[in-house]
Amino acid sequence: MKNHKLSGLGAAMITPFKSDKECDWDALGKLIDYVIDGGADYIVSLGTTAETPTLSAEEKSEILRFTREKIAGRTPLVAGAGGNDTRMLIRHIAEMDLEGVDALLSVTPYYNKPSQEGLYQHYMAVADASPRPIILYNVPGRTGVNMTAETTCRLAADHPNIIAVKEASGKIDQIDQIIKNCPKDFLVLSGDDGMTIDVIRKGGDGVISVAVDSFPKCFSRVVYLCRQGLFDRAEEAYAPLHEAVCALFEQGNPVGVKAALSILGLIENNLRLPLVPATDLLMKKMERLIREYDLC
């Protein structure tokens, strides 16, 4: 694994809401401390897990400012900045306050379903315009388009401002191709908690995680063992987490992680429509898993 400040374990932060669905700043501050103290190597703000599509421009700016000030230099900071209108995304990045931000996580354009050439041209234009390095984010289950290994490697080779990919295709063969064929200094990060060990075993550089939000000490232990090359021990450490990690995504993200965090007493279990809280059945399941495997 590369010794880079954005290798290892990144925490994809939620946005906690109060009962009136306004941002809960006290809870967000406590969560940032919780994941950093639990072993996260860096923080990812304004990603999918943050319910970013439901946040106003003003809220996004305030969340990023608050997160930067709360981190206070303890870890690197990555900010989400994606879209399906390239010109508007470039304008948005130009308007962002990027003080203290180490890189931008930029999802593939969604809904339009661009070709591979369209994806390439989109990211080249964004990387040209961005004052911060770009982490590509491939998550076809949400966007409707899969960025192939060939396109990822082409971007990695052709633009020095493109430094990493968060790969959430769920295709380990595709991820393996990226690891083998991208420039040696290019970071390959798992976008799926459950694939973290396999990705790092194949030569990947870490994970941008949802599970670390709720179970930071347990999950950071898994990543630490992987980084030491102790994969059998990492598998043993992950075994008690497996059911809980699956449950986190059973009804979608961040529904599951907010359920877990509310059980742990760290947030109120509030989401903004169109997302709704976990069912009673999932809540009871999560309570049982947390208690049974001592995940708190």
Q: Classify the fold: give the CATH topology.
A: TIM Barrel
* Beta strand %: 5-15%
Order of helices and strands: EHEHEHEHEHHEHEHEHHHHHH
Return residue spans where pLDDT drops below 50 for at least 5 consecutive residues. Answer: none
Gyration radius, rounded = 18 Å
Inertia-based shape:
globular
What's the CATH first level? Alpha Beta
CATH architecture annotation? Alpha-Beta Barrel
Largest sheet, order of strands side by side? 1-2-3-4-5-6-7-8
Output mean pLDDT. 97
**With helices defined by DSSP (H or I, 4 residues minimum), what is the helix count?**
14
Mind telling me the CATH superfamily name? Aldolase class I
The domain tally reads: 1
Number of strands: 8
Largest sheet: 8 strands, parallel, barrel
